[in-house]
Write a structure and sequence with these properties.
Layout lengths: L8 H18 L3 E4 L2 E4 L9 E4 L5 E8 L6 H10 L6 E4 L1 H6 L1 H9 L3 E4 L12 H19 L5 E2 L8 H9 L3 E2 L4 E2 L8 H11 L4 E6 L7 H14 L3 E2 L2 H5 L4 E3 L4
Parallel strand pairs: 4-5, 4-10, 4-11, 5-6, 7-8, 9-10
Antiparallel strand pairs: 1-2, 3-12
Length: 254
């Protein structure tokens, strides 16, 4: 026999009020609008940037690369064919060091380059000296290869805590996350990747995609994503362009 919990309207309302109060106390309450989540930081310390507050139809396409050499070329081809000049790539420094020709192509195309750290591990598991060492090593390698010191960082696996954010901030970095995850890393099918991005994209959005070899369908989905967003009136900006002079949306961190 199946059993079901039954709650009255008053009991549900009272439970929701209690839950919201507890979340406010924990500093992790957010207000949710159409495709937008606004999180209220628990303090004024460094915070990761997920998107920006703007009415302008502008989004940032971002691509993480940590390994492989087969997917980046086709993605760069598509961006060139579609005339997309403003894109941000977050490069893992070991990958960049072993693929200088591909990095050169990204630089020559004028795309923005951010750091994706050195070891592809969760930095929240490191002590502060290790966090600093990982950021510094990636910093030195990327500057040597690209000729420019990066000032944006997206940590491996999107993992960080307050210590990681503070160290990155002290080293002159802005930590960049995303509001829309294409889920291309799951290889769910080209149509699902397209629908995920196009349906969720909103003004000021930072969109996460990948150009590593493990993501086998990104280059197949990208042309339609670009065309669909253009049809909706969106412009493509680098992350730096998007966040420059604009109120950013952040999330609280424990």
């Amino acid at each position: 026999m199946n059993h079901f919990w039954v709650f009255s309207g008053k009991r549900i309302k009272r439970s929701l009020i209690i839950a919201v109060a507890l979340l406010f106390a924990a500093g992790i309450v957010y207000a949710e609008g159409k495709n937008v989540q606004v999180f209220f930081p628990v303090d004024s310390g460094p915070a990761a940037i997920y998107s920006v507050n703007t009415d302008k139809k502008q989004v940032a396409l971002t691509f993480d690369i940590s390994w492989g050499e087969e997917r980046t070329g086709p993605i760069l081809d598509i961006l060139e064919q579609k005339g997309i000049k403003n894109v941000t790539f977050f490069l893992s420094s070991p990958w960049a060091e072993s693929h200088p020709d591909i990095v050169k192509r990204i630089v020559d195309a004028g795309y923005e380059i951010g750091s994706h750290g050195h070891k592809h591990e969760n930095y929240s598991g490191y002590d502060e000296a290790q966090i600093r060492a990982q950021i510094s090593k990636a910093d030195a390698i990327l500057e040597k290869i690209t000729g420019k010191k990066p000032n944006l960082i997206r940590f491996p696996n999107g993992d960080f805590d307050k210590r990681v954010l503070r160290v990155a901030d002290e080293m002159g970095y802005k930590t960049i996350q995303w509001d829309t995850d294409s889920l291309d890393w799951m290889n769910p099918g080209t149509d699902k990747i397209i629908n995920k991005v196009v349906s969720k994209a909103h003004p000021g959005d930072i969109i996460l995609m990948h150009a590593s070899d493990s993501c086998r369908q990104t280059h197949e989905a990208l042309p339609q994503i670009i065309d669909s967003l253009k049809e909706k009136g969106y412009e493509f900006k680098t992350v730096s362009e998007l966040i420059s002079g604009t109120e950013t949306k952040t999330k609280s961190v424990e």
